[in-house]
Amino acid sequence: MAPGWYHRAPLLQSRYRYTMPKTKAPPKLSALYAPRCWPVWCLLGVAWLLARLPLPVVTALGKVSGRGLYALSGLSGASRRRITETNIALCFPQLPASDRAALARESFVHTAIGAVEITQPWLNPRRDLSNRMDIHGIEHLHAAHAEGRGVLLVGGHFTAIDIISQGLNKAINMDVIYRRNRNPVWEWLQVKGRKRYFDAVIERRDTRQILRRLRSGHIVWYAADQDYGARHSVFAPFFGVPAATITATARLAAFNRSPVVFMSNYRHPENLRWSIHFSPVLENYPSGDQLQDATRINQIIEDAIRAHPQQYLWMHRRFKTRPPGAASLY
Fold first, then answer.
1. Reduced to 3 states, what is the DSSP secondary structure of residue 220?
2. Is the dihedral of CA 133, 112, 225, 239 positive or negative?
3. Main-chain dihedrals φ then ψ at residue 325, nearest 5 degrees
4. CA distance 79 to 288
5. What is the average pLDDT across 118-122?
6. Domains, the chain, ordered by start
7. CA torsion through residues 144, 145, 150, 155, sign
């Protein structure tokens, strides 16, 4: 569910004139059964069985897997652990080294729990978990939707990003933007799994549909916290570090004067519940200043991360693109 069509798309020139980037065709049915996909089908078979285990067991398996992966990655020098530790060191330099190591370890645990949790809504939809989800601030989203200009629902890559699908489905109708996967089996699964709960599952490069849905008054969710290169980005501070930050959030909001609401989500493993939080509509956004608008979105994401920093996806290279002349951080 990540943004990215703006990485290649040109700037919108007006409300009604824009140039479409080319989108890839969905994988052919025959591609799903190619020999290279057989191991993935085997893995999905195991996931199907996991999805039918008691929920406490599912969470426990995620915890054990996360701790194991963290330990193994230390022995092998795996890049994901290095990226995680680098990001945490950059964003929390004030923490003692032991606390940063503990945060990295817990990040692996929550990422693994999130991966196991996906089996619930995608492979066992009959298990309704919506009654385990506490929704806060839904009145802000309803009020924004009532304006009739569409709503840009901005989020980040928190590790409970997919388990909350059932709760969102019960609360409001919405669309989601996602990133196409190269593996045809995983692509089929993530689209099929999300279509159970959302009105539209839009590939990130499908600019035309994104704009059409906003103009039709739909709520459209996408994540605004990944590095997609310098093109159509500005270097705005993220935890005090210059980060290539997309400017598409402000441009999308300006297209139909759509209100912008931020959504964060967290798991609470101590009582097997999840919480979803909607912010009030962002006032005076967009401002017309790209750097100011990007900095504001980064700050909102920062605040959400600080609430439960171990539940953020620190494994992605948030600081991959550097300002001119700056050394690589990875």
1. strand
2. positive
3. 85, -10
4. 38
5. 96
6. 5-11+38-311 (3.40.1130)
7. positive
Helices 248-255 & 290-307 angle (0-180, nearest 10): 110
- Kindly indicate the confidence band of residue 19, based on its pLDDT and cuts at 50, 70 and 90: very low
Residues 6+ apart with CB under 8 A from 60: none
In whole angstroms, what is the distance from residue 121 CA to residue 193 CA? 7
Centre a 10 Å sphere on the Cβ of residue 88 and count the other Cβ atoms it contains: 23
Q: What is the pLDDT of residue 198?
A: 97
Does residue 304 surpass a pLDDT of 70? yes
> Across the chain, how many H-helices and E-strands are there?
11, 9
Alpha carbons within 13 A on the beta-carbon side of 152: 25
Strands (E), the chain: 133-136, 151-155, 175-178, 200-203, 219-223, 233-238, 241-246, 260-268, 273-278
CB atoms under 10 Å from CB of 110, counted, come to 26
pLDDT of residue 232: 87
